[in-house]
Amino acid sequence: MAARERAILHVDMDAFYASVEERDDPALRGRPVIVGGTGARGVVAAANYVVRRFGVHSAMPMSRALALCPQAVCIPPRMAHYQAVSRVVFAVFGEITPLIEGLSLDEAFLDVTASRALHGDEVAIARRIKAAIRERTQLAASVGVAPNKLVAKIASDLEKPDGLTVIPASALPERLDTLSIRRLPGLGRKKGDEVERAGLTTLGELRRAPDTVLRPLFGRDVQRMRDRAAGLDDRPVVADREDLSISAEETFDSDIADPARLEAELLALADRSSTRLRAKALVAGCVAVKVRRADFSTFTRQQQLEPATQDSRVIARAASDLLRRWRAEYPGARVRLLGVGVSALAPAAQFDLFAAGAVPQPSPLDTTVDAIRERFGTAGVKRASALPPAPRKPAPK
Fold first, then answer.
1. pLDDT tens for residues 46-80?
2. CA nearest neighbour of 69 among 85, 45, 52
3. Residue ranges of domains in the chain, CATH in brackets
4. Which residue of the set 22, 107, 122, 263 is catalytic?
Protein backbone atom coordinates (compact mmCIF):
# COMPACT_ATOMS: atom_id res chain seq x y z
CA MET A 1 0.00 0.00 0.00
CA ALA A 2 1.19 3.52 -0.65
CA ALA A 3 2.37 5.41 2.42
CA ARG A 4 -0.44 7.94 2.11
CA GLU A 5 -3.12 5.27 2.44
CA ARG A 6 -4.58 4.26 5.75
CA ALA A 7 -3.51 0.90 7.10
CA ILE A 8 -6.40 -0.84 8.87
CA LEU A 9 -6.32 -4.29 10.44
CA HIS A 10 -9.29 -6.41 11.40
CA VAL A 11 -8.22 -9.07 13.91
CA ASP A 12 -10.63 -11.92 14.57
CA MET A 13 -9.84 -14.76 16.95
CA ASP A 14 -10.69 -18.11 15.38
CA ALA A 15 -13.67 -19.86 17.06
CA PHE A 16 -12.56 -18.04 20.21
CA TYR A 17 -14.60 -19.62 23.00
CA ALA A 18 -14.28 -23.12 21.55
CA SER A 19 -10.56 -22.63 20.94
CA VAL A 20 -10.03 -21.60 24.55
CA GLU A 21 -11.81 -24.76 25.70
CA GLU A 22 -9.69 -26.92 23.38
CA ARG A 23 -6.53 -25.24 24.62
CA ASP A 24 -7.48 -25.85 28.24
CA ASP A 25 -8.52 -29.46 27.63
CA PRO A 26 -6.33 -31.10 24.95
CA ALA A 27 -8.68 -34.13 24.97
CA LEU A 28 -11.16 -31.96 23.03
CA ARG A 29 -8.83 -31.43 20.08
CA GLY A 30 -10.08 -33.05 16.93
CA ARG A 31 -13.55 -33.49 18.37
CA PRO A 32 -16.66 -31.43 17.47
CA VAL A 33 -16.98 -28.78 20.19
CA ILE A 34 -19.86 -26.38 20.80
CA VAL A 35 -19.90 -23.66 23.44
CA GLY A 36 -23.34 -22.42 24.41
CA GLY A 37 -26.45 -22.93 26.45
CA THR A 38 -27.69 -26.48 26.76
CA GLY A 39 -31.23 -25.70 27.94
CA ALA A 40 -34.38 -25.99 25.89
CA ARG A 41 -33.77 -22.55 24.38
CA GLY A 42 -29.99 -22.84 24.27
CA VAL A 43 -28.12 -21.28 21.36
CA VAL A 44 -24.65 -21.95 19.93
CA ALA A 45 -22.20 -19.25 21.04
CA ALA A 46 -19.15 -20.75 19.32
CA ALA A 47 -18.48 -23.81 17.18
CA ASN A 48 -15.04 -25.18 16.43
CA TYR A 49 -14.02 -25.94 12.88
CA VAL A 50 -14.63 -29.68 13.27
CA VAL A 51 -18.31 -29.26 14.11
CA ARG A 52 -18.76 -26.59 11.44
CA ARG A 53 -18.26 -29.30 8.82
CA PHE A 54 -21.63 -30.68 9.96
CA GLY A 55 -23.31 -27.33 9.22
CA VAL A 56 -23.27 -26.06 12.79
CA HIS A 57 -22.66 -22.33 13.23
CA SER A 58 -22.94 -19.66 15.90
CA ALA A 59 -26.41 -18.33 16.78
CA MET A 60 -27.96 -21.66 15.72
CA PRO A 61 -30.44 -23.20 18.19
CA MET A 62 -28.64 -25.88 20.19
CA SER A 63 -31.36 -28.41 19.40
CA ARG A 64 -30.69 -27.94 15.68
CA ALA A 65 -26.92 -28.15 16.20
CA LEU A 66 -27.21 -31.44 18.07
CA ALA A 67 -29.53 -32.82 15.41
CA LEU A 68 -26.82 -32.08 12.82
CA CYS A 69 -24.02 -33.42 15.01
CA PRO A 70 -25.29 -35.61 17.88
CA GLN A 71 -21.73 -36.51 18.94
CA ALA A 72 -20.77 -32.89 19.59
CA VAL A 73 -19.29 -31.99 22.97
CA CYS A 74 -21.37 -29.17 24.50
CA ILE A 75 -19.67 -26.87 26.99
CA PRO A 76 -21.39 -24.09 29.00
CA PRO A 77 -19.71 -20.71 28.46
CA ARG A 78 -17.12 -19.48 30.97
CA MET A 79 -17.34 -15.77 30.27
CA ALA A 80 -15.05 -14.53 33.04
CA HIS A 81 -12.35 -16.86 31.72
CA TYR A 82 -12.83 -15.74 28.11
CA GLN A 83 -12.68 -12.13 29.25
CA ALA A 84 -9.35 -12.77 30.94
CA VAL A 85 -7.94 -14.26 27.73
CA SER A 86 -9.39 -11.36 25.75
CA ARG A 87 -7.50 -8.88 27.92
CA VAL A 88 -4.25 -10.60 26.98
CA VAL A 89 -5.14 -10.32 23.29
CA PHE A 90 -6.07 -6.64 23.55
CA ALA A 91 -2.85 -5.96 25.45
CA VAL A 92 -1.01 -7.15 22.32
CA PHE A 93 -2.96 -4.62 20.26
CA GLY A 94 -2.08 -1.87 22.72
CA GLU A 95 1.63 -2.47 22.16
CA ILE A 96 1.17 -1.49 18.50
CA THR A 97 -1.39 1.33 18.46
CA PRO A 98 -3.79 3.22 20.73
CA LEU A 99 -6.35 3.25 17.92
CA ILE A 100 -8.23 0.06 18.82
CA GLU A 101 -11.95 -0.35 18.20
CA GLY A 102 -13.13 -3.46 19.97
CA LEU A 103 -16.20 -5.12 18.47
CA SER A 104 -16.41 -7.98 20.96
CA LEU A 105 -14.13 -10.01 23.21
CA ASP A 106 -12.49 -11.63 20.20
CA GLU A 107 -12.62 -9.05 17.44
CA ALA A 108 -11.22 -5.54 16.84
CA PHE A 109 -10.23 -2.97 14.25
CA LEU A 110 -6.77 -1.43 14.56
CA ASP A 111 -5.55 1.67 12.75
CA VAL A 112 -1.80 1.10 12.34
CA THR A 113 -1.20 3.92 9.85
CA ALA A 114 1.04 5.86 12.23
CA SER A 115 2.58 2.69 13.69
CA ARG A 116 4.40 1.79 10.48
CA ALA A 117 7.29 4.13 11.18
CA LEU A 118 8.13 2.22 14.35
CA HIS A 119 6.96 -1.33 13.65
CA GLY A 120 7.35 -1.80 9.89
CA ASP A 121 4.69 -2.03 7.22
CA GLU A 122 1.16 -3.18 7.91
CA VAL A 123 1.83 -6.76 6.81
CA ALA A 124 4.79 -7.03 9.18
CA ILE A 125 2.61 -5.61 11.95
CA ALA A 126 -0.12 -8.16 11.24
CA ARG A 127 2.41 -11.00 11.42
CA ARG A 128 3.80 -9.62 14.67
CA ILE A 129 0.34 -9.46 16.22
CA LYS A 130 -0.51 -13.01 15.16
CA ALA A 131 2.78 -14.32 16.56
CA ALA A 132 2.39 -12.47 19.86
CA ILE A 133 -1.16 -13.76 20.33
CA ARG A 134 -0.01 -17.29 19.57
CA GLU A 135 2.91 -17.03 22.00
CA ARG A 136 0.90 -15.58 24.88
CA THR A 137 -2.39 -17.46 24.52
CA GLN A 138 -1.61 -20.49 22.31
CA LEU A 139 -4.54 -19.38 20.15
CA ALA A 140 -4.84 -18.47 16.46
CA ALA A 141 -6.12 -15.22 15.02
CA SER A 142 -7.05 -14.31 11.46
CA VAL A 143 -6.12 -10.83 10.26
CA GLY A 144 -7.36 -8.78 7.35
CA VAL A 145 -5.20 -5.89 6.11
CA ALA A 146 -6.77 -3.19 3.97
CA PRO A 147 -7.12 0.58 3.48
CA ASN A 148 -10.44 0.69 5.37
CA LYS A 149 -12.55 -1.12 7.97
CA LEU A 150 -15.03 -2.67 5.56
CA VAL A 151 -12.45 -4.37 3.37
CA ALA A 152 -10.29 -5.37 6.35
CA LYS A 153 -13.27 -7.20 7.85
CA ILE A 154 -14.02 -8.96 4.57
CA ALA A 155 -10.35 -9.91 4.23
CA SER A 156 -10.03 -11.43 7.71
CA ASP A 157 -12.75 -13.94 6.89
CA LEU A 158 -11.32 -15.17 3.59
CA GLU A 159 -8.59 -17.51 4.83
CA LYS A 160 -9.77 -18.77 8.21
CA PRO A 161 -8.48 -20.23 10.41
CA ASP A 162 -5.11 -18.61 11.18
CA GLY A 163 -5.27 -16.51 8.03
CA LEU A 164 -3.53 -13.33 6.92
CA THR A 165 -5.16 -11.67 3.91
CA VAL A 166 -4.01 -8.40 2.38
CA ILE A 167 -6.24 -6.40 0.02
CA PRO A 168 -4.59 -3.11 -1.08
CA ALA A 169 -6.60 -0.26 -2.54
CA SER A 170 -5.17 -0.95 -6.01
CA ALA A 171 -6.65 -4.47 -5.96
CA LEU A 172 -10.17 -3.70 -4.69
CA PRO A 173 -12.20 -4.44 -7.85
CA GLU A 174 -10.06 -7.47 -8.70
CA ARG A 175 -10.32 -9.03 -5.22
CA LEU A 176 -13.89 -8.08 -4.34
CA ASP A 177 -15.86 -8.44 -7.58
CA THR A 178 -15.83 -12.23 -7.60
CA LEU A 179 -16.79 -12.62 -3.93
CA SER A 180 -20.27 -13.75 -2.95
CA ILE A 181 -22.61 -11.00 -1.83
CA ARG A 182 -22.81 -13.02 1.42
CA ARG A 183 -19.33 -11.71 2.22
CA LEU A 184 -20.66 -8.16 2.59
CA PRO A 185 -20.76 -7.34 6.32
CA GLY A 186 -24.15 -6.33 7.63
CA LEU A 187 -26.14 -7.59 4.65
CA GLY A 188 -27.92 -10.25 6.71
CA ARG A 189 -29.29 -13.60 5.63
CA LYS A 190 -32.78 -12.41 4.81
CA LYS A 191 -31.61 -9.48 2.69
CA GLY A 192 -28.97 -11.71 1.11
CA ASP A 193 -31.75 -14.06 -0.01
CA GLU A 194 -33.61 -11.13 -1.59
CA VAL A 195 -30.51 -9.89 -3.40
CA GLU A 196 -29.75 -13.35 -4.79
CA ARG A 197 -33.36 -13.76 -5.94
CA ALA A 198 -32.86 -10.53 -7.89
CA GLY A 199 -30.04 -12.25 -9.77
CA LEU A 200 -27.12 -10.63 -7.96
CA THR A 201 -24.75 -13.22 -6.53
CA THR A 202 -21.39 -11.43 -6.42
CA LEU A 203 -20.16 -8.08 -5.17
CA GLY A 204 -19.21 -7.16 -8.71
CA GLU A 205 -22.76 -7.76 -9.92
CA LEU A 206 -24.09 -5.71 -7.03
CA ARG A 207 -21.64 -2.88 -7.76
CA ARG A 208 -22.58 -2.73 -11.45
CA ALA A 209 -26.34 -3.24 -11.11
CA PRO A 210 -28.59 -0.38 -12.33
CA ASP A 211 -30.74 1.64 -9.96
CA THR A 212 -33.84 -0.06 -11.34
CA VAL A 213 -32.64 -3.35 -9.84
CA LEU A 214 -31.16 -1.95 -6.62
CA ARG A 215 -33.89 0.50 -5.61
CA PRO A 216 -36.53 -2.14 -4.81
CA LEU A 217 -33.92 -3.89 -2.67
CA PHE A 218 -32.30 -0.97 -0.83
CA GLY A 219 -34.53 2.09 -1.33
CA ARG A 220 -32.59 5.25 -0.49
CA ASP A 221 -29.48 3.22 0.36
CA VAL A 222 -28.73 2.31 -3.25
CA GLN A 223 -25.57 4.37 -3.56
CA ARG A 224 -24.29 3.35 -0.16
CA MET A 225 -24.70 -0.33 -1.00
CA ARG A 226 -23.04 0.16 -4.37
CA ASP A 227 -20.12 1.87 -2.62
CA ARG A 228 -19.86 -0.93 -0.09
CA ALA A 229 -19.79 -3.54 -2.85
CA ALA A 230 -16.90 -1.54 -4.34
CA GLY A 231 -15.06 -1.59 -1.01
CA LEU A 232 -15.43 2.14 -0.33
CA ASP A 233 -15.53 3.08 3.35
CA ASP A 234 -14.24 6.23 5.04
CA ARG A 235 -15.24 5.41 8.63
CA PRO A 236 -12.42 6.03 11.11
CA VAL A 237 -11.31 3.54 13.71
CA VAL A 238 -12.87 4.89 16.91
CA ALA A 239 -10.62 4.13 19.86
CA ASP A 240 -12.46 2.48 22.72
CA ARG A 241 -12.56 4.02 26.13
CA GLU A 242 -14.61 1.29 27.72
CA ASP A 243 -15.05 1.13 31.45
CA LEU A 244 -12.58 -1.34 32.92
CA SER A 245 -14.55 -1.36 36.13
CA ILE A 246 -17.50 0.30 37.84
CA SER A 247 -17.43 1.10 41.52
CA ALA A 248 -19.09 3.06 44.29
CA GLU A 249 -17.51 3.95 47.61
CA GLU A 250 -18.30 6.00 50.67
CA THR A 251 -16.09 7.68 53.25
CA PHE A 252 -17.99 7.93 56.50
CA ASP A 253 -18.16 11.02 58.70
CA SER A 254 -17.34 8.81 61.66
CA ASP A 255 -15.78 5.35 61.67
CA ILE A 256 -18.18 2.41 61.74
CA ALA A 257 -17.69 -0.83 63.66
CA ASP A 258 -21.30 -2.01 63.96
CA PRO A 259 -21.73 -5.07 61.67
CA ALA A 260 -25.37 -4.31 60.84
CA ARG A 261 -24.53 -0.73 59.86
CA LEU A 262 -21.59 -1.89 57.71
CA GLU A 263 -23.81 -4.46 56.00
CA ALA A 264 -26.45 -1.83 55.19
CA GLU A 265 -23.84 0.57 53.79
CA LEU A 266 -22.28 -2.21 51.73
CA LEU A 267 -25.62 -3.23 50.21
CA ALA A 268 -26.36 0.37 49.26
CA LEU A 269 -22.99 0.57 47.49
CA ALA A 270 -23.58 -2.75 45.71
CA ASP A 271 -26.94 -1.40 44.56
CA ARG A 272 -25.31 1.75 43.16
CA SER A 273 -22.70 -0.27 41.24
CA SER A 274 -25.20 -2.72 39.78
CA THR A 275 -27.55 0.09 38.76
CA ARG A 276 -24.72 1.75 36.82
CA LEU A 277 -23.87 -1.63 35.30
CA ARG A 278 -27.39 -2.02 33.91
CA ALA A 279 -27.47 1.59 32.73
CA LYS A 280 -24.41 0.84 30.57
CA ALA A 281 -25.91 -2.47 29.35
CA LEU A 282 -22.97 -4.42 30.79
CA VAL A 283 -22.52 -7.55 32.83
CA ALA A 284 -19.71 -8.19 35.32
CA GLY A 285 -17.59 -11.27 35.88
CA CYS A 286 -15.99 -10.14 39.12
CA VAL A 287 -17.04 -8.24 42.26
CA ALA A 288 -14.66 -6.60 44.72
CA VAL A 289 -14.98 -5.01 48.14
CA LYS A 290 -12.65 -2.26 49.35
CA VAL A 291 -12.26 -1.58 53.06
CA ARG A 292 -10.21 1.20 54.70
CA ARG A 293 -9.79 1.02 58.43
CA ALA A 294 -9.54 3.91 60.86
CA ASP A 295 -5.74 3.66 60.73
CA PHE A 296 -5.92 4.17 56.91
CA SER A 297 -4.78 0.64 56.10
CA THR A 298 -6.69 -0.50 53.00
CA PHE A 299 -7.80 -3.98 51.99
CA THR A 300 -9.47 -5.40 48.90
CA ARG A 301 -11.19 -8.73 48.48
CA GLN A 302 -12.65 -10.04 45.21
CA GLN A 303 -14.66 -12.94 43.89
CA GLN A 304 -15.37 -14.23 40.39
CA LEU A 305 -18.99 -14.37 39.22
CA GLU A 306 -19.97 -17.38 37.13
CA PRO A 307 -21.89 -16.65 35.06
CA ALA A 308 -21.35 -12.91 34.62
CA THR A 309 -24.32 -10.86 35.78
CA GLN A 310 -25.91 -7.45 36.27
CA ASP A 311 -28.37 -8.63 38.92
CA SER A 312 -28.27 -6.51 42.08
CA ARG A 313 -29.04 -9.44 44.36
CA VAL A 314 -26.20 -11.58 43.01
CA ILE A 315 -23.68 -8.75 43.25
CA ALA A 316 -24.87 -7.76 46.74
CA ARG A 317 -24.72 -11.36 47.95
CA ALA A 318 -21.12 -11.76 46.73
CA ALA A 319 -20.08 -8.41 48.24
CA SER A 320 -21.71 -9.27 51.56
CA ASP A 321 -19.88 -12.60 51.68
CA LEU A 322 -16.55 -10.84 51.01
CA LEU A 323 -17.16 -8.32 53.78
CA ARG A 324 -18.13 -11.00 56.28
CA ARG A 325 -14.95 -12.89 55.53
CA TRP A 326 -12.89 -9.72 55.97
CA ARG A 327 -14.59 -8.96 59.28
CA ALA A 328 -13.77 -12.49 60.47
CA GLU A 329 -10.10 -11.65 59.86
CA TYR A 330 -10.35 -8.27 61.62
CA PRO A 331 -13.10 -8.58 64.26
CA GLY A 332 -14.18 -5.29 65.76
CA ALA A 333 -12.21 -3.18 63.23
CA ARG A 334 -13.50 0.35 62.72
CA VAL A 335 -14.08 1.26 59.08
CA ARG A 336 -13.71 4.75 57.62
CA LEU A 337 -14.27 3.86 53.91
CA LEU A 338 -16.19 1.11 52.17
CA GLY A 339 -16.49 0.39 48.45
CA VAL A 340 -18.01 -2.12 46.06
CA GLY A 341 -16.73 -2.52 42.52
CA VAL A 342 -17.43 -4.78 39.55
CA SER A 343 -15.00 -5.66 36.77
CA ALA A 344 -14.39 -8.16 33.95
CA LEU A 345 -17.09 -6.24 32.09
CA ALA A 346 -18.71 -7.26 28.80
CA PRO A 347 -21.72 -6.07 26.80
CA ALA A 348 -24.92 -7.67 28.02
CA ALA A 349 -25.88 -8.20 24.37
CA GLN A 350 -22.98 -10.65 24.12
CA PHE A 351 -25.03 -13.09 26.15
CA ASP A 352 -28.03 -13.12 23.83
CA LEU A 353 -26.31 -16.06 22.15
CA PHE A 354 -26.55 -18.20 25.25
CA ALA A 355 -29.45 -20.00 26.82
CA ALA A 356 -32.07 -17.79 28.34
CA GLY A 357 -31.09 -18.90 31.82
CA ALA A 358 -27.31 -18.79 31.38
CA VAL A 359 -27.02 -15.18 32.49
CA PRO A 360 -29.69 -13.73 34.76
CA GLN A 361 -31.81 -11.13 33.07
CA PRO A 362 -32.65 -8.02 35.10
CA SER A 363 -35.08 -9.15 37.80
CA PRO A 364 -38.55 -7.59 37.94
CA LEU A 365 -37.40 -5.80 41.10
CA ASP A 366 -34.28 -4.39 39.41
CA THR A 367 -36.34 -3.32 36.40
CA THR A 368 -38.90 -1.57 38.60
CA VAL A 369 -36.28 0.15 40.77
CA ASP A 370 -34.36 1.34 37.68
CA ALA A 371 -37.55 2.76 36.14
CA ILE A 372 -38.49 4.64 39.32
CA ARG A 373 -35.00 6.08 39.64
CA GLU A 374 -34.95 7.11 36.00
CA ARG A 375 -38.15 9.07 36.50
CA PHE A 376 -37.69 10.42 40.04
CA GLY A 377 -33.93 10.35 40.58
CA THR A 378 -31.70 8.06 42.63
CA ALA A 379 -33.40 9.08 45.86
CA GLY A 380 -36.80 8.04 44.51
CA VAL A 381 -36.55 4.57 46.01
CA LYS A 382 -34.23 2.65 48.30
CA ARG A 383 -33.98 -1.05 48.94
CA ALA A 384 -34.97 -2.05 52.44
CA SER A 385 -31.81 -4.15 52.80
CA ALA A 386 -29.70 -1.03 52.31
CA LEU A 387 -31.43 1.05 54.97
CA PRO A 388 -29.42 1.65 58.14
CA PRO A 389 -30.63 -0.33 61.14
CA ALA A 390 -33.13 1.48 63.34
CA PRO A 391 -31.70 2.69 66.64
CA ARG A 392 -32.48 0.37 69.48
CA LYS A 393 -34.99 1.59 72.00
CA PRO A 394 -33.73 1.60 75.56
CA ALA A 395 -35.07 -1.26 77.64
CA PRO A 396 -37.87 -0.22 80.00
CA LYS A 397 -36.75 0.24 83.57
1. 999 999 999 999 888 899 999 999 999 999 988 88
2. 52
3. 1-169 (3.30.70.270), 177-240 (1.10.150.20), 245-386 (3.30.1490.100)
4. 107
